[in-house]
Amino acid sequence: MNMLTKVTPEAGDIQSLSTKFSTRPLWQRAAIIGSPLVLLAAAATIWSSDPSPAAAPAAPTVTVAAPIERNVNQWDDYVGRFEASRSVEVRPRVSGQIVAVHFTDGAIVQKGQLLFTIDPRPFAAALAEARAGVATAQSELSLAETNLARGKQLLGKAVSQSTVDQLVAKEQTARAALAAARARVQARALDVEFTRVRAPIGGRISDRRIDAGNLVSAGDSGGTLLTTINALDPIYFTFDVPESLFLKASRQGLEGEKGQLTEIRLQDEADYNWRGRLDFTDNGISQNSGTVRARAIVPNPNYFLAPGMFGNMRLADGGSTAALLVPDAAIRTDQARRIVLAVGNDGTVTAKPVETGPLVAGLRVIRSGLTKADRVVVQGVQFAMPGTRVNTRVMQVRPTETDAAKAPPSISPSASQATLAAN
Fold this sequence. Notes:
Order of helices and strands: HHEEEEEHHEEEEHEEEEEEEEEEHE
Strand order of the largest sheet: 2-9-12-11-10-13
Distance between the termini: 116 Å
């Protein structure tokens, strides 16, 4: 049995609908026919009509400033270590027993200050014996002189010339023996003096290596080490100069020039508080490291600086030079180059490649790429796109020393730092 049955309208139903439509008033029949047409026409009109234009967005506002021109002192950066200007190992010059220690470990000592005492009694006895030898030699010399004088008086009578010559030789021998006895006295007196070990230089002393009661031995190489002393005022700051900076200094006529100003800061300092002068430059470049050893001398009256401390040093790059300065926030990186955004007179933003230098007083040195007349975007850089138009608000750039101390160092092969030159 087929479940699908075709439904067809009855003829009577169609005739009934036609009769009802024809019997309606004219205005109802017009409304029934015209309403769909009106809706179609309205839809076509809405579809074909153009949309109303949207309002254009307002141009962003950025802050611009002209670069400032200042004279700056350029510096080269180095890392080095402090060393004692002089260092001495204190060793005894005579052997014996330590009977006293006269200093405090780690104290500041002056040149000639008594440090140790060695038992002086054996050396005092030796000195007394040497002095007795001098008395004996003087007696023998007096006898020889008397005999010589008597022999000369009897020469040709009871004494021959040969005897007189022998008496002259004895007199000279006695005189030499006296001189030797006196030298022994001086040597024994020095031994007595050496029992009091004194500081050969002034500076900070280390701890004692030998306590009282111990025996010590003398000697240039095998002598007992008693303590060490480092001279700290002034103190040395040693550092290595890369070959590239050495060549640059050589071309500028600064290589090996003593007296160049140096400034040093310690690891926990933000400012360069320590001043010094270049004191020494080595006479060759190391084949292993490709650097030249150099040294600065730094005053250290309070003995605050100690050997072994690390420090960051900047060395004057040779005089002052005029430079343009802009805020570091205005520098942008475009792949491998650095750019700043400048705004023209018509408000159009352009990107200008620049060569940057070090930070000075919170501002970045611009070596090339800008002029004093340029208007650089310093705030709102993210809203300024090259080729677009912007509204500008003008401000004045001012250096700040505090920002310079906190700013990170510049990555630059030369003149890695700079400071404002005195007007």
